[in-house]
Amino acid sequence: MIADIQTEHHSFGSLDRPPYLIAEIGLNHSGQLDLARRMVDAARESGAQAAKFQLYRSRAFINPEARLSPDAAPGSLADFFAQFELRPEDWHALAKHTREQGLDFFCSVFDAPSLELYRELDARLIKIASCDIDNRMLFEDIKAHDPGRGPDDRAADDGANSTSASSDANSRPAWAVLFSSGTADQGEVERAVSYLEAERPRGIFECVSAYPADAADYNLAVIERWREGFACPIGISDHTTGNALSIAAVALGARMIERHFTLDRELPGPDQALSLNPADFANMSAAVLDVFAARGGRAKAPSSAEEAPRKFGRRSIYAARAIPAGASIAREDLIASRPGGAEGAISPADCDGIIGRTAAAEIAENEIIRAAKLDANPTAGEGRDGANPGDVSRRGDAR
User: Fold this and answer.
1) Do residues 97 and 40 make contact, with C-beta atoms less than 8 angstroms apart?
2) Cβ contact 241:210 at 8 Å
3) What span, in angstroms and rounded, lies between the C-alpha atoms of 353 and 4?
4) How far apart are CA 81 and CA 148, in angstroms?
5) What are phi and psi of 383, to 5 degrees?
6) Can you give the pLDDT at residue 125?
């Protein structure tokens, strides 16, 4: 049984819930609050339920000597990421604006100082990026900063097993932790799950850390395995440029779809080219919701739209030739024809129950055969004159 994850505006996760559509704005705002707000507005219009960002302090998670490329200056990697940072007051304004649009606000958070700020933003979800799937220290930092913990908990020793994901009447809900699996193997996914308390809501994304990614590099087969094995919502962080994987993932049971989102792929930034613009995201949204609506159940049943075709598009049994009153009906006396569905008509599925019975009254050629014109006959299964219905040798006219 998979418990739904509850956010401010949505509940998602179980197979009966529609897929949770996440517009990964990420760094596409280029550090500009106004652009970030406009992207949130467009995401809402495009069918997203959540707008997700990346929250970090560059020099808190990148070595100060790291280079953007081998020939770049020391510190250039942190400098590159710093250009996408927002000020704390901007984050508060962006979180407020996102909620006002009816979207869930949440972030991938990369470092402990940023967790202090994120705690103030009142998000219900937090995401761990693929690059940190093996970063137990970050998992522990997330637990230590969890808004569901009271002041006494946070002041206590934060050992590996000392943190609880529960919350009480005097605290806010604990974060539901989502994480992506790009670059990971199965054992690393299992280990990441083990870093979280058993009672903590969590979700896992199948992901390929390539930008853009090839469809063939994804492994959609893990969706069912993880859903059953980890008993939590499973999603896809789709870095391909089309919608096929997002659509297929929903058919296979994914209930979280994360796609990079932008207003214009020509904008500057490292993720713009693989992002969906508003029209693309809207098309993806419509397609995955169609697939969700078509999920059905494990037993086949006709839909309400098929009522007329089921009644009139099928066939009924008619007389292939005139049948005299008192005659024993043979297979050759019958033909399955359209339209079906008339009152008292007999389905071709029940043809064996007619053969060998006696016509209670004359039945004209091409007349629909109704039970009212048949007498019960203990020799049912034989044809006219006692012939086996498959033996036409005794018939003068087999037709």
Assistant:
1) yes
2) no
3) 51
4) 30
5) -90, -175
6) 98
Kindly list the distances between the CA atom of residue 17 and the CA atoms of 4, 51, 299, 318, 382, in Å, as whole numbers in the listed order. 8, 19, 19, 47, 55
Name the residue with tokens 């999603």: 235
Residue with tokens 């930008």: 211
Residue 395's pLDDT band (cuts 50, 70, 90): very low
Q: Which residue intervals of 101-150 are DSSP H helices?
A: 112-120, 136-144
Residue-wise pLDDT for 141-152, tens only, equals 999 999 987 555
- pLDDT-above-70 percentage for the chain: 89
**Considering the chain, what is the average pLDDT of its residues?**
91
Domain ranges of the chain: 5-293, 305-386
Specify the amino acid at residue 226: W
CA–CA distances in Å: residue 156 to residues 73, 152, 153, 335? 42, 6, 5, 84
Tell me the C-alpha to C-alpha distance, in Å, between residue 390 and each of 207, 295, 323, 376: 61, 44, 18, 21
The pLDDT, as a whole number, for residue 390 is 39
Convert the pLDDT of each residue in 179-211 to its tens digit. 999 999 999 999 999 999 999 999 999 999 999
Per-residue model confidence (pLDDT) at position 393: 35
- CA distance between the termini of the chain: 60
Residue 12's closest CA among 176, 217, 190?
A: 176
**Tokens describing residue 134:** 């093996």
**pLDDT band of 383, cuts 50, 70, 90:** low
Sign, Cα dihedral of 2, 10, 150, 193:
positive
The contacts found for 93-101 with CB under 8 angstroms, 24 or more apart, are 93/33, 94/33, 94/36, 94/37, 94/40, 94/53, 95/121, 95/122, 95/123, 97/37, 97/40, 98/40, 98/51, 99/8, 99/9, 101/40, 101/41, 101/44, 101/51
Among all chains, which residue has been given the structure tokens 């896992």? Answer: 204
> Looking at domain 5-293, which CATH architecture does it have?
Alpha-Beta Barrel (3.20)
Whose structure tokens read 């008192």? 326
Q: Domain 305-386 adopts which CATH fold?
A: Type Iii Antifreeze Protein Isoform Hplc 12 (3.90.1210)
DSSP symbols for 275-328: SB-HHHHHHHHHHHHHHHHT---SS----GGGHHIIIIIS-EEEESS-B-TTPB
